[in-house]
Amino acid sequence: MTVPAYVSPDQWISDRADFARRGVGRGYAVVVARCADGICMVAHNPSRSLHQTSEIHDRIGFAAVGRYNEYEQLRVAGIRLADIRAYAYGPLDVTGLALATTYAQVIGANFASMNEKPYEVELAVAELGRTRPADQIFRISWDGSVSDGIAPTVLGPMSQDRRDTINEFITDSTPLDDAVRCAAAALTASSDAAIADELEVSILDPRTGGRRTFRRLGRDRVRAFWSAS
Amino acid sequence: MIQPWGTMLPAPYLAAGSDSFTEFTRLVSPDLLPPTSLDTSMPELLRHGTTIVALKYNSGVVICGDRRATMGSLIAQDDIEKVFGADGISVLGVTGAVGLAIEMVRLFQTELEHYEKIEGRPLSLDGRAARLAILVRSNLAMAVLGIAVIPVFAGWDAFRHRGRIFSYDGTGGRNEEHAFCTAGTGSIFATATLKKRHRLDMDRNEAVQLAVRAIYDAASDDAATTGPDLSRGVYPVVVVADEDGVTRIATENVALVAKRLVDEITESNESS
Prior knowledge:
The complex is a heterodimer.
Chain A: H1 9-26, E1 30-35, E2 38-44, E3 53-57, E4 60-66, H2 68-88, H3 96-111, E5 121-127, E6 136-140, E7 146-149, E8 153-155, H4 160-169, H5 176-188, E9 199-204, E10 214-217, H6 219-227
Helix pairs in contact in A: 4-5
Chain B: H1 11-14, H2 21-28, E1 47-49, E2 52-57, E3 60-65, E4 69-71, E5 74-77, E6 83-85, E7 90-97, H3 98-119, H4 125-137, H5 140-144, E8 149-157, E9 162-168, E10 174-177, E11 180-183, H6 187-197, H7 204-221, E12 237-242, E13 245-248, H8 251-271
Antiparallel strand pairs in B: 1-4, 1-7, 2-3, 2-11, 3-12, 4-5, 6-7, 7-8, 8-9, 9-10, 12-13
Helix pairs in contact in B: 3-4, 6-7, 7-8
């Protein structure tokens, strides 16, 4: 019987972390931020069909960077979990915290499992509160670590000074068009209107009047953010 | 069964699989779905929802249901609602075993929303009608025992740019209706009214009036159907689906239509 070569846990974790970090670092970033009109999610995503932002439930949105097949699997799992929860109990019993915790459990267990490849994804779960101060944005990293807060959240690769710019300029009183332009400038280093065609923009909008607050903004609507100014 | 929440997920959640909520629920938590067998001697099962009518007009469809649920010769409930918006463009009315019918509505609503979230776009109107047929068929074993649920489905088809109506039988058989359809115990009487008075070029107000009249006529011949109850302010539920989506007609407006109808009938009786 052969004994596997000893690898120290430090080395093992650090190898897996490097692998996952490289995977996430390859794609484009996504910005999730509270603005005056709700919580907006802006992705630099030239594709019109492979979305990086999505609706999970009435007041909960999802954003992701990394490998498409992996975050799509997690997105669908989130929708299944939320819908079955709402069906078994009620829509008010679906919470962003529990969803973020579930994602953290799944990703964290996978990261620590010898037999599986670590997820190469970073996720955000954005939840519109019953009142605006109760909004929450959870960020779940490739090792299952979670952070939460109300500050703008950037998933994926972005330099620190651009993150600082976003933190400074997008607040809960920034109008949607300003927030999207600011996020786009940070994501693409361009303030040109042509960039609108490469953006995917969604919003959780508390003023839709209905139970479901998620809206995906069409390219025309996004383009108008540049022509109006 | 307790649902996982903030914990590790069972494997089916992470597996590539169905975009159908019902099929997924059958895998992970079948106890949440409506039962497929019951002891039919339970008196609750005799609760029975009654008449639904659906009719087309020049720019959409109207669907209307009375408010009664019966239990044998008793009135079980006189303000029950049996017509629901299924989603933004379609409407569902249910007749038959009330408990199962209401569950079927909830399941169908969840089914449509679940599909839309996973696929990123809603089902076509035909797709919705087909999904509903599957839900009806899954109740077939119960229908054989006399606990059938028969829905009527109607909605606005954005591709064909017209309202459409689908009727069902207990086996899940689905049939698209050309002009109107009825379901439930009062349906033969409501059909008689619609046959004489319905025109496809009616406007929305005429269609709403005719729907309420059909329910009124059904109520006067069928003990299990109730007409507008002016004294207690309980009126049929009327929902319209057109290009602008699904709108439930406000109770005040249904009350006006009902009062006008009752006045008209009173006058014609007095003059004869």
